[in-house]
Each structure stands twice: as C-alpha cells, then as structure tokens.
Amino acid sequence: MNNKNNNLLKRIKELEKENLELRSQLSRNINAEYESTQIDQKFMDCEDRFQAVVDHSPLAILYTDKNGIITTCNRKAEILLGTTREKLVGFSYKNVADLKIKDSVKKALAGDQNHFEDEYITITGNKTFNISAIFSPSFSHDGSVSGVIGIFDDISERLHMEKERNLLICELRSSISKVKSLSGLIPICASCKKIRDDNGYWNQLEEYIRKHPDVEFTNGVCPECMKKLYPGDSGK
Q1: What is the spatial distance between Cα 169 and Cα 14, in angstroms, rounded to a whole number?
Q2: Tell me: the pLDDT tens digits for 119-131?
C-alpha cells in the first residue's frame, strides 16, 4: 500500500513538473507571439508613415519590382503622368512609349542611376511639358537589384523663367553696349578738328586719338573757329 502511495505521489510530482514546464513554454510562446505582433504593428506603422510622406511629396514617385513592373506610386505621379494609380500599378516599363524613360528604367535595373530632362507627353496624350527624371536602382540585402525608384518633376515653369532671364540678360547687355557707345561720343570742331575733353579744353585731334582709340565723334565748333567763321556771334 505504501509503495502504491509513493508511486502515486511521485507521478503527481512529475505531472506537476510537466505542467509547470508547459505553462512556462506557453508563457514564452505567448510573449513571443505578442512581441512578433508588436513588431508587425510597428512595421505596418512605419509603412503607413512612409506612404503618407510619399503621397504628400511635391515630386512624382513610383516604384518597380526587379522586372520593371510598377508596384506603387504617389498621387503626384498620377497627376504628372496623366493616369490613375490603378492603371499604373502592374504596368511594365517595356510598354512605355517614351524611349528615354524606357532606356532609363532599363539602366537602373542594371544597377546604374541616371537622370535626364526632356519634353514629355502624358499617357493620355492631352498634355505636353518638360520633366526632370531620376531613376535609381533599389538593392536588396544581398546586393542584387530589387527594383527601381523613379522620381519626376515638372520643370516647365523653371525653363520658362530661365528663358525670360536669358532674354533679360541679352537686353541688359544690349543696353549697356548702347550706353557705352553713347558715352564714347565726343565733340570735335568741324573746322580745325580740335577735340574738347571732359574738362572743356580743346586738344589736337592726333593727340586725343592716340590716348582714346575707341571713340566716335560729333561735330561742333571750337571758340577760335567760331570767331573766324561767325565773327558777329563770337561773343554769344
């Protein structure tokens, strides 16, 4: 009888130990699951924040997978490219009509970042403007290309302002040239050809030309010639 009781007590202790271990394992599993859930939630929160930043970007942004198929884009890309996100997602770069964009995506998929500026016609064909585009490869942890990030910007206004600035510069240069030309006009006596300098003195033509090779002349009459040519007006 005592042996049976002892064996029963021993078995009860073994079961209690197993139960404790199971409880401990369950607790660890629950904690691990909770931590995993927390990590997943943090990851989702990060993705949501990242998508919010992308969606509110003033630049058009899109992503492709390693095959060059668009996986996502922001609202600005829809506006700039003239279509909807639903139509862009799943679209392959191989079907893009614009050869420069197609070539740029191809280079990025090969691991090379590239940039170009050119005229672009929207997919719907109802708008033409100038874009600046950068295509960069996206790399996975093993160093292989996992996709492409494309960033676009409408630079039509910038180019228009640059054109106006260049026209203004040309006008200013022309005006400065005219001012210089006018400032180079000097009075010369129509009779003896003496020249009046900035101080009001009349000098010999040869001496003045030697000192000032780049000048133009206007006609005038020096006081001495005035007396000879117009004796009655010499005192006026």
Answers
A1: 95
A2: 887 765 567 888 8
